[in-house]
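DM from R.C. (forwarded with permission)

"hey, sorry to bug you on a friday — could you get me a structure for this? deadline for the figure draft is monday and I only need the backbone to look sensible"
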Amino acid sequence: MRYAIYFTPPQNDPLTRAAASWLGRDPFGGQVAQPRMTGDLSAEEVAFHTAAARRYGFHATLKSPFTLADGETEQALQTALDQFASTAKPVTLPRLSLSRLDGFFAITPFERSTELDRLAGDVVSGFDGYRAPMTERDIQRRNPDRLTPDELKNLYLWGYPYVFGSFRFHMTLTGRVADAQSNRVEHAIRSCFGPLLDEPLEIDALTLFVEPEPGAPFMVRSSHLLGAMAQLENA
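My reply, with the result:
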């Protein structure tokens, strides 16, 4: 079993519902929807382009999937998440953007947020004690020969190449899309999400996802509200 600390909006948030419709799966309850024609993409084309993202569910990675270290438990991890989240501050992204990163489409901030970068870094370092050491197989899955020196260092130190200076907040919507298909896929995504792509996004919780067994779809295990302690003090 592997765990991951992600951000995803609440289950009934319009962005979450649009993403579940696009990806064909809701990680909160595991419901699977039949792909449907979107824009000028057929249902089969939508299913093909979203296959890689579908298994992970709609999310932005903060702490990438990991196996629990010896002696650690899910309950201990959830308790630590509650404690961390209660004193961390929510972050508001004033505007979103649809971006193509290394060939795949994702929702990203329109402008980089130092507050969000800081939160992500704190999650990476703050929960690393719960992560079991990587195996050689884990390392090879990340294609280390393709990583920059800084990314390779991050992989060995933190279990994921894209942290700290290499971090970029993104919520993946597709696998890699060939250049010849990119315009059609982008049009379909915009047809599905509409004005949601231009609205603010509140990063207001950390969400624990779980992969029950290798290759299984990731599911939401628990959500942990950011700033809960400050909200209680100000109530």
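R.C.: lifesaver. The mean pLDDT is 93.
me: no worries. The chain is about 40% helix and 20% strand.
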